[in-house]
Specification:
Length: 336
């Protein structure tokens, strides 16, 4: 297995090669550098808005430096394929779920954002994403071949089910529930009592339709964007953790750029966090009304505090896995 040191050496090697062909800042202005950003979300999803906000900010900071083309809707592959392409350097930028990035890069630090019930709301998320602890997590991804630029919440997660409405914590028992095949998610949902099933994002609709799964933990944006409301008619509000999206740049490509362009890319990432969160928050609330209009039953979970108590030991358990997670948890608890 490639370790962090080897990955960094590869990044430096790639950066040196890239530096030979990269233009000076003035020449870059004369001829925009063509780069691509691929992600899996559709155009109304906050994941796409995150990419658009990043592009807008970058063009404002360094006009004419980059010709950034965005490829949504799995045009360049699913979530995992986009992240893998960015790590490999065949794609300069990507947007991907923090869960997928954790799986691909082996960097567990991103799990911090999805510790159950740690992050309270979108304002709390913004504080953490722009904090020193959030920055440290983004930097840690360089050991996996990419640099995190913008971490944002693309929708607090809730619970959608097909035939059985989940009204109380007892109703979770035995439901075949789609999760991202991440160790943290598996432990959380086994603790709650469901039967977790790991499936790619693009297979969720078909699995719900055919009965391969009974339910999924999901956000409003995906319920709408993937038309899951057509098959899952019960939506229970739990807000168990955010769904964090990270805009990333290939490490070798980034290190081959001039300091001016590197700083612009970093700043564009930070500047695009809040506008994306504003969009997500609006869509989360407005989208619930849209789901109601489409015939989806919106439910409050009886016994939500019981659910929180069930999974609370996981926060301490995961804090022991990484100093970055421990620092993030402390920051979250002190800023709630």
């Amino acid at each position: 297995m490639t370790n962090g040191f080897t990955r960094r050496e590869l990044i430096r090697t790639g950066a040196a090669a890239a530096a030979v062909t990269l233009a000076t800042p003035n020449l870059t202005r004369a001829q925009a550098m063509k780069v691509r950003l691929g992600h899996a979300a559709n155009e109304i999803h906050p994941g796409h808005i995150a990419a658009l906000e990043f592009k807008t900010s970058l063009e404002t900071l360094v006009p004419g430096a980059f010709d950034l083309q965005i490829f949504p809707n799995r045009q360049l592959g699913d979530d995992r394929q986009n992240v893998e392409s960015c790590v490999a350097g065949t794609l300069e930028f990507c947007g991907g779920s923090g869960s997928t990035i954790s799986i691909v890069t082996g960097q567990v630090s991103l799990d911090a954002y999805q510790l159950p019930f740690l992050i309270k709301d979108y304002d709390h998320f913004a504080k953490l994403a722009l904090s020193a602890e959030g920055d440290a997590i983004n930097e840690s991804l360089m050991d996996g071949g990419i640099l995190g630029l913008q971490t944002t919440d693309i929708g607090q997660r809730h619970f959608a089910s097909v035939s059985k409405p989940v009204r109380s914590t007892a109703d979770f028992a035995g439901l075949k529930t789609r999760i991202v095949p991440l160790e943290l998610h598996k432990i959380i949902w086994e603790t709650v009592g469901v039967s977790p099933v790991g499936l790619p994002y693009g297979e969720v609709y078909g699995a719900l339709e055919t009965g391969t799964i009974d339910a999924c933990e999901i956000n409003v944006s995906s319920m709408l964007g993937e038309n899951l409301w057509e098959v899952a008619k019960h939506f229970t509000l739990t807000g168990h953790y955010p769904w964090h999206n990270v805009t990333c740049v290939n490490g070798a490509f980034f290190e081959g750029l001039s300091p001016e362009l590197q700083e612009a890319i970093r700043t564009a990432g930070r500047d695009s966090v809040q506008p994306t969160l504003d969009y997500t928050a609006r869509q989360d609330l407005d989208g619930r009304e849209e789901l109601k209009a489409k015939g989806v039953e919106i439910l409050e979970l009886e016994g939500l505090e019981d659910m929180k108590a069930q999974v609370s030991p996981i926060v301490e358990q995961w804090s022991a896995k990484s100093p970055l997670i421990a620092d993030f948890v402390t920051a979250a608890q002190n800023s709630a």
